[in-house]
Design goal:
Ribosomal Protein S5, domain 2, Alpha-Beta Plaits, 42% helix, binds alpha-D-galactopyranose
């Protein structure tokens, strides 16, 4: 079955399950992908550069507006059963479980003055939760795409990015940036999304690793992380402190050549946090240039340098991520790094096709020897951004 046929079958299957559950057919089915970030970590909220791509795993939602103010939500994965809410009674911070993502989007739309009717929603997602692949943003982006259409709100992709960020920051309570939503809403098959987080301009950069004999492996370490916990927020606070001490609007405005002088004006920890952001922005630009001029086979050393910077300067890696990266590198990957917010989640390893099995076996073996939970390892390719599929 080709991709289109698979998508059609999946959409019609979800629509049938929706009808069995809620007693009427959905008005439509909308899908939005998770993402991996090739490079540019924690640079988004510093108004810098990122280079993620939408992956071939996504959240799919079937939705039907109701005639009242009730919202009913059901996930095919959930033991929670149907979660009910009222559009007039959404309170930031008060919702637990996966329902906070769709309800956060409704709340953020209301904050913009958009009237959202009650609706029934059935979710199915194959983005693994907790793997650092933005499973939550995939849900938010599928829901905002659907509700944008169903309410006739007419928001642009950039506006939907900002709106879902507001949902995430103010309703869910995670102080995250705009990278994940931008990849999910603005991604395109065969391309990475080169995003300037200061003005939200996007350039699509071809990334067809398989055409050059490479695969991008994702190694899900199974170490749970949450961006609502303190680690992410404390890194963000250090960056803001550093920018203020250096007298710039955001760390985006500090160049690599300014770092030496900056060292004398910052405490050692803040300096290392700043150095990660400043050098990481530079690495994103170098990866974009290298992809355009020489292709994916040459970006490996920049991925490795990014990991070292996150491990040593930004201190957001963990033993499982370091082991995944080191083992992949020493068994044939040409570049590897943790991806996403850190403190757990996944690593990526750019690997020659002929070495893929060797890398997989070595990583599983190393995890067993270290007494770590066995990782999940799979390949991803750049896929389409959010869309209506039925
Ligand atoms: C999480 C956040 C993003 C970004 C990354 C780190 O994925 O949601 O906004 O800050 O961490 O690059």
């Amino acid at each position: 079955m080709n991709t289109t046929a698979r998508t059609d079958a999946h959409a019609s299957d979800l629509a049938s399950r929706f009808e069995e559950t809620f007693g009427a057919a959905p008005d439509g089915v909308w899908a939005a992908p998770g993402r991996v970030n090739l490079i540019g970590e924690h640079t988004d909220y510093n108004e810098g550069f990122v280079l993620p791509f939408a992956i071939d795993k996504r959240a799919t939602t079937a939705i039907r507006p109701r005639g009242d103010s009730t919202i009913r939500l059901l996930s095919t994965a959930g033991a929670e059963g149907i979660v009910a809410a009222d559009t007039a009674a959404l309170v930031p911070g008060a919702v637990t479980g996966w329902a906070k993502y769709p309800l956060g989007v409704v709340w953020a739309l209301q904050q913009r003055g958009i009237d959202v009717p009650g609706f029934d929603l059935l979710l199915h997602s194959d983005v693994p939760p907790g793997a650092g692949l933005s499973s939550s943003h995939a849900i938010e982006c599928a829901v905002v795409t659907a509700l944008n259409e169903l309410t006739g709100a007419g928001l642009t992709a950039e506006e939907m990015v900002t709106l879902t960020q507001h949902a995430e920051n103010a309703f869910v309570g995670a102080p995250t940036g705009i990278m994940d939503q931008s990849a999910s809403l603005r991604g395109a098959g065969g391309h990475a999304v080169f995003l300037d987080c200061r003005d939200q301009t996007v350039q699509l950069v071809p990334f067809e690793a398989q055409d050059t004999g490479l695969v991008l492996l994702v190694i899900d370490t199974k170490v749970a992380h949450s961006h609502s916990d303190g680690g992410y927020a404390s890194r963000r606070a250090s960056c803001e402190l550093g920018a203020a001490a250096l007298g710039v609007k955001a760390l985006r405005d500090v160049a690599v050549a300014d770092l030496e002088a900056a060292g004398g004006r910052l405490d050692p920890v803040t300096f290392r946090r700043v150095r990660h952001i400043v050098t990481e922005n530079d690495r994103v630009l170098q990866v974009v240039d290298t992809l355009r001029s020489q292709g994916p086979a040459r970006i490996g050393p920049l991925l490795d340098a990014s990991h070292a910077s996150m491990r040593d300067d930004f201190e957001i890696s963990c033993p499982e991520l370091d082991l995944a990266v080191d083992t992949a590198r020493s068994h044939g990957a040409i570049g590897a790094r943790m991806t996403g917010g850190g403190f757990g989640g996944s690593a990526i390893a750019l690997t020659p096709v002929g070495r893929e099995q060797q890398v997989r076996d070595a990583v599983v073996r190393a995890f067993t020897q270290a007494g770590f939970t066995s990782p999940d390892i799979f390949t991803v390719t750049p896929a389409a951004g959010a869309e209506r599929i039925r």
